[in-house]
Fold these 2 entries.
Entry 1:
Amino acid sequence: MNVKMIGRFLAQIIAVEGVFLLPALAISLGYGEWDAVTGFLYTLAIMAAVAGVLFLLCRKAGRLFGAREGFVCVSFSWITLSLLGCLPFWLSGRIPGFVDALFEIVSGFTTTGASILPEVESLPKGLLYWRSFSHWLGGMGVLVFLLAVAPSSGKGSGFTMHLLRAESPGPDVGKLVPKMRQTAMILYIIYVVMTVINIIFLLCGKMPLLEAVCTAFGTAGTGGFAVKNDSIASYSPYIQNVTTVFMLLFGVNFSCYYLILLRQIRGVFKDEELRLYFGIAIAAIGLIFWNIRDIYSSAGETLRHASFQVASIMTTTGFATTDFDLWPSFSKTVLLTLMVIGACAGSTGGGIKVARVLLLFKILRRNIRQILNPQKVQIVRNNGRPMDEKVLSNTNAYLAAYVIIVILSFLLISLDGFSTGTNLSAVLACFNNIGPGLEAVGPTCNFGAYSAFSKMILIVDMLAGRLEIFPMLILLSRSTWSPHRQK
Amino acid sequence: MDIIIAGGGKVGLTLARQLVAEGHNLTLIDRDSHILETAVEQYDAIAVLGNCASKEVLLRAGVAGADLLIAATNADEVNLLCCMTGHGLNKNLHTIARIRNPEYADQVMTMRDVFPLSMTVNPERQAAVEIERLLRFPGFLRRDSFAKGRTEIVELRIGKDSKLCDVSLSDMSSIVKCRVLVCAVLRAGAAVAPSGNFVLREGDRIFVTAPKENLTVLLKNLGIITRKVRKVMLCGGGRVSYYIASFLEKDGISVQLLEKDHQRCVELAQMLPKTSVIHADCSSQITLEEQGIGDCDALVTLTGMDETNMVISLYGGSRGVPQIITKLSRGENSSIGDSMALGSMICPKELCCNQIVRYVRAMGNQTGAAVSVHAIADGQVEAVEFLVDETTRNCNIPLKDMKLKPNVLVVGITHGTQTQIPNGDCVFTQGDTVVVVTSGRGVLQRMNDIFA
C-alpha cells in the first residue's frame, strides 16, 4: 500500500479544512466570542502541526495508487476530518465530552444532522456556522473539492477516479467530462450556485444573513442542523416552503443539472430514477396528508407540514417544522420507509438511494422470471440501457451489507435500554444520514442520552452511511492491510 | 450495359446468372480463383482475380467504362470501400452495395453525400420486411405489392376444405364477393394462365390480384380465419431474426426468440428490450413445447440450416400453428416445400437479387421502362409494373379492342388512388399504373412491349 501518498492526501485535506475554518474564526472574532476563538485557534495550531508532520514524513511518495489506496484514502480522510473538525467544540468547552463533540461533527460532515445538544441557540455564532458548514462540505464531498482545486498531474492521474467512486454516492459513478478536475469543478459550481440561490430566496423571506447561510448549508448538504432549537418551525411558511423545494432539488442527481445546462432536458425528464424519486415523494405526501388531515387547522397547513417532512426525510436532510413523532403511526411508518429509500444517487442525500431501490426491484423481477423460465436470457436495463452485471451484483452486496450493519448496530445500541422504536429509528436516522428519528430521538429530542459506546456505534454508522459502506468495510478487511499486493 | 459484380457468393452468382441472361456484359471480381473458374464456365462473363476494393483491380475490371458496380462480398466495409473507390474512378458509375450489419443500416442511406451509393441492399432486412408483411395478413403465402402498395398479388394454396376447391374461375366471384382476378395458377410445378372455365383443384397455388382494400374481404369470404397475430416464435437468432423482432416490437406483438449460442442471446437481449430471448436449442421438440409452440399465432424458422428450418416448420404445422414462415438460404429447396406444409417460404438471397435486377432494368431504359418486376409462381411468371406516359401507344382504347401479345395479361390498372381489376371496357390513360403478368422472362422491358 502506498502509505506515503495517502499521507500526502491527508495533509492536503487538513489544509483545506483549516482554510474553511477561517470564516468561522472570523465570525467568532466579529461577535467577540472568545471561548470559540480560542477553540478555533488551538484547532488551527493542531491542524498545522499534524499537516506539517504528514508533509515531512510523506515527501517522497510513489506514484502507485490503486483502488485499494483510493478507498483507504477516502475512509481515512473522513476520519481525520472528523477528529480534527470536532476540536473547536471540545477545546472551546462548549461540548465537554470528546465523544459528544465527535458525534456532533461527524453528524455534520456526513450530513446527518443528529445532535447531542439539547439546545443550540446559546452556542457561539462561529461554532453554529462551523456546524452548518460541515454539512455543506460533507454534502458534495471534501475529496471531490480537493480534486476540483488540486492541479491534476499528467501521468497516472487516472487514479482519482477511485476517489470519486469511493466518495460519491450511487451504484454507478461516472465522470461528466473527460477530465476529472473539470468534472469535480462542474459539480461544485452547480452546488455553489444552487446554494447561493437558496440563500437569496431565504433572504427574501426576511431571514437574518447568518441564519440564511446556515440554513442554506443545511439544505444544500441535505444535513439538517438548524440554528434554532425548534429547527425550522418558528420561521414563516414562505421560508418553510422554500426549504421544502430546495431540499427536494438537492436530493436530485447532480448530473441531471449538468444535462439541463447542456440543454438535454428531454433526457432528464425521461430519467427513470428522477421520475421514481418525485413519484415516491408525491405519493408519500399524499398518504401523509390524508392520514394527518385532522391534526392541523387548515388543509394548506397540513399540506405544508406533510410536504416539508416528506422532503426533509426523503432527501435525508432532517429539518422539521412540526413534531412528527406526534403523528399517527401510519405516517411515521411512511417516514421510516422514506428514510431507508433515501434520495437520488449522485445527490448530496443519503439512504439506499432511489437508483439502487429501482435496480433491486428490477433484479428481483428478473430473478422471479428466471425461476419461471430458466432458459430465458434477461437483461436488467436502466433508462433503456443494459446494466453491467458487476453493478447488479454490487447492488445486491450493498443491500446485504446494509441490512447486516443495521441489525448489528440495532443490537449493540439496545444495551442502553431505550425502546425498540427509539433504537431502530436512531440507527436508521444515523445510518441513512437523516438526523431525527422517532420517540426519544424524535425531532424535539436529541441523541445526548445515549452512552458513549452507543454514540461511537452511531458515529461509525454515520460514516458508513455517507461513504456507502464499502470504504468503511474495506478498513476491516485483512487483505487491505496485507503487505503483499495481490498479483 | 457493362456491369461489374464484386464478390462471387450466393447473391453474386445468382445475380450473374440473371444479368447474363438479360444480355448484359458482365465482369466478376473475386479473391478466390476456384469460384471464378466455375463461374466463367457457367456464365458468359469475364473474371478478374483480386481485392475488389483496390483501385488496380477495379481498373482491370474496366470500371472506367462501366455503368454499374454491384458490391456483394461478405464484408460490409469492403463493399462500401469498393463502391467509394469505384465512384472515385468513374463519376458516372452507379453503385449498389450490400450492407447487412444492423449498426450501419441507418447511416448509409442518410449519409448519401459521403457514401456515393445509388442503392444499398440488405437481404436480411428485406426478408424481415417481407415476413412482417406476411404476418400482418396471415393467410397469404406471399404478397407482392405494386402501384405504391395499392395493388397486390397474393398467393393462396387451395387446400382440401378450401371453399375454392373444385370451383371454376367464372364462379369464383360469387364466393369471394369482391373484384379479384386469378392471374396465374401453379399446378404440379407448372404455371398455367387460367381461363374462365378453369377448375381449381386441391394443391393448386393461385396468384390473385386485388386492390389492397379488398384483401380482408377476400380472406373473410374464403373462410380463412384472420386472427390478429399476437404471439410469434422466432427460431434462430440471426440478423433476420433481429430485424423481425425489432419490427414486431414496434407493432406491440409479443416475440419469443430461441437461440443456441449464449453470447448471441445476451447481445440480442440487449438490443431487443421487449423480446423474450431464450437460450435453447430450437431443434429440440421438448424445448419448443416448453416455450409454448402450441399457442403461438405464428412460427418463423430462421436458423442457418435449411433442413432444420424445414423440420421445425413441419413440427409447427403438426402442432397446429396457424401461420408458418420458413426461411430458405437456397432457393432451389423451395420446390421441395410444395409437397409439404412449410407455409410461406422466404429466400433472402432471391429477394435481394430481384431488387437489384429491378434496378438494373429500370436503369437500362429510362422512358416507359418497367417500374418494378416481381417474379412469382416459383419464377415462372413475371408481374411487371408500368407507368402510362405520352409515348404509350393505344391510350384510350378499350382493352377488348387492343391487340396484346399472347402470353400477356393485364391484371390491374391504378388510376389515381383507385385500383381497378380490368374488364374489356377499361382504357389506359396517361399517369395510370398498369400491372401485367407474363409467362415469358425478361421480354417486357417497356410498356409498349405488351402490344402485339
Note: Residues 1-268+395-487 of chain A form one domain.
Entry 2:
Amino acid sequence: MAVRPVRTLLPALALLAACRSPAPAPPAVRYGQHVFAGGAAPAGVTLENPYRGDRASAAQGETIFGAMNCDGCHGGGAAGWVGPSLADGRWRFGGSDGAIFQSIYYGRPHGMPAYGGLLLSSDAVWKLVTYLQSLAPPADLPTEAWDTSAR
Amino acid sequence: MFLLALCAGALLRRAVAQDAQWTMPAKDYSATRYSGLTQITTANAARLRPVWTFSTGVLGGHEGQPLVVGHTMYVVTPYPNVLYAFDLTQDGYPLKWKYRPDVDPNAVGIACCDAINRGAFYAEGKVVYDLLDGRTVAIDAASGRELWQTKIADLAKGETTPVAAFVVKDRVIVGASGGEFGIHGWAKGLDLATGRIVWTAYNIGPDSLVLARPGTFRPFYDKGTDLALTSWPKDVWRRGGGPVWGWMSYDPSLDLVYYGVGNPGPYNPDQRVGDNKWTASVLARRPADGSLVWAYQFTPHDSWDYDANAEMILVDLTVKGRPRKALVHFDKNGFAYTLDRATGEVLSAEPFVEVNWARRVDLTTGRPVLDSTKLTGASRGNFKHICPTLEGGKTPAAPAAYSPRTGLFYVSTNNMCMDYLAAQATYIAGTPFIGAATPYHAGSRGDGNLGAFIAWDAGRGRRVWEIRERYPVWSGVLATGGDVVFYGTLDGWFKAVDARTGHLLWRFKVGSGVVGNPISFTGADGKQYVAVYAGIGGDWFLLAGDVRSDDPADVRPPADFSPDLARHTSQGGIVWLFGL
C-alpha cells in the first residue's frame, strides 16, 4: 500500500551489532507535567539528556532514526506519517527529556514499539532524543491559513 | 413454454429480492457493485435528499460499506471496529444493538496506512468481519452475540487485518496486510460454523506452502514447480510481503475464488532479485481446501509498489468478437486487464491512465514490456516521473462497478506520477520494512487535476467518458438499474451521474471526504435508498496529514502536491442515507 517519505541509511547493521549488549534498564521517570492527586508527587527520578544540544549526537541520532525504521511510521524528517509528527514541538506522552526517552525505550500504546534493551542502548536512545529535540518547529504552527485576504 | 415462463418469473423475483438487500461487500459474488433497483433515475436524481445520518464516533478512514440484510443495516467502524445494527423498520432507524470488541490498540501502529476496515459479510445468520488486531469474528445477526472468534494474524510479525472477510459456502476466506512490514503473505479458509482454520495458503514459498498441488495447479504462462520459491533469493521470500487486503470474488460454476496479492517487500527491488511470485498477482483458488488452480502475475519483480489487491470483476464480455467468461481488473500499475477467468489467459491489457513504466503488455507471454529507464533500485539512482504513483492508477481501496445495462465499468482513478529513490532496508520485526522515498506530482495529462472518474469499455479497451476531479478519486462506485452511478470525492462531495454520458445529476456535501463505497437497497417503506460513509482517511490520513484535528500533539504541514485539501475536509465518520 502507500507509504511514502522514507529514508533508510546503510550503517544500520553496524549500529545494531554495536548495541547487542543488554544494559541495565533505566529507572522509572516522574512526569513533571502530570497532575498529582492531592498535590503529592510519587517517587521517581527526573532523567536529563546527557547530549542535549550536541550536534554530533543529533547527527548520530538521525542515522539511528533511519536505521531503526522510525521514519517508516513517523515519516522523513519525523514530520508525521501513520505515527504522529515528532517535529512539531508537541508531544502526546510528554516532551521532557525523560518522557521522550521512555517513549522510545519502553514503547507506548497505539503501536509505538519498545526499542530499549537489545536493539538500542540507553546511550543510543539519548542520541535519538537529541535528534528529535534538534528539529525546530515552525513558528506559526497553530494556524494554517488558505484565505490570505486578511494578511 | 409455460415452464420456461415460470422459471423466468422465479428468477426475476429472486433478483428483485436480492436487489432489495446488500449482503456482501461488492453486492454479488461477481463483484459488480451493481444494484438492479430502478426508482432513482436520471430523470429524478436531482431530487435526492438526505433522509438520515449517524455519527460513528470514530475518526479513522471510513473505507468499506454498510450491509443491509432484510430491514437491518450493519455498519463496521474503523478501529476500534464497533459493529452497529440499525432497525430500518422503526422511525429514526434506532440501534438494535452494538458490539464493541476489545481490539489491541497496538494494531493502530502496525497498520501501514490508517486503522481502516473494509467491511463485513453476511452469511447464514452471521455477520462476519475482521478486527484490526488479527482476529476474525462471527456475530449473530439477530442478537449481536459473539458466536466465535479466531486469531488469524500476528501483530508481532507486522500483520494487521483490515480486509473484508469473504464467505463461500461453509468457508470464510481472510487475509492480512503488512506489505510494508516484511510479512509472509497468506490467505486462510475458516469454517463458517466454528471459526476453525481449515487451510492456510501462502502467496510466496514452496508449492507445499502455496498449496500448488500437482494436477490441480495449471498457470497459463508459467511452467515448472516451486515458482513462488525459485523466483526469489534464498530465504528472502520468508519476509517478502505479498499481503491480501483487497476484494475477493467467486465464480460458482468454476468453483474458483479470486483475490489479488499485494506488493513484494521491501520497496527496494535490489534486495529481492527475481520475479517474486506470487506478489502483484491474481490467484484463483478452490474455496473448500485452498488449492491453487491458476495464477497470473501482473507486475513481475514489482519495482514500484504496484499491489494487485484491486477487485476482480467477473463478467461475460465479447472480446475481439468472441464471447468470453472474463475477469476484469484495474491494476495499480495503470493497465486494465481482461483475463479468461477459467485459465488466467490475458485477453487484453490497455492503460486506463498515464503509464510509462511499461510500454505495453505482451499477450503471448503475459509479461509487461518494460521501459528500462523506469526500473528502480537502490543501486540505480533516483528516478524521476514514473507513472502511475504507488497509490496506483486506481487505488485498490476504491472498487469499481459494472453495469450490465451499459456494459461499462465505472472507475475512480488517480492522475499522479512519482519520483522513486530506493534505499537499503533493514528488517526489524514489528517495524516498517520499506526502503524508498517517492514524492508525488500531478500527471501530465489533464489540467493539474489529480484524479478523474471514468467510464471504461473493457471489450474495446478505451475510455468512454471522464469527469476530471481536483483530487484523486478514492471512493468505491455504485451502478444502478436507473442508469445512475454514484461516487464520492476527497473534498466531501457525494455525486450522482448519468451512466451513459457522465453528466452530473446531483451532488451533496457530506461533511468529510469520501473513501467508502456507496450501496443501494429497498427500505421497509418500499423505497430505494443509497447509503455511503463520509470520513476521509486511509492513505489520505498519511498523505494529507493536515486533515486531522483530533490530536493536539500532531500538527503537520499540507502535502506539497495537494496543498489545500484540508481547506475542504477534516476527519469524521458519518453514515449517510439518501432517498427521493
Note: Residues 5 and 76 of chain A are 5 Å apart (CA to CA).
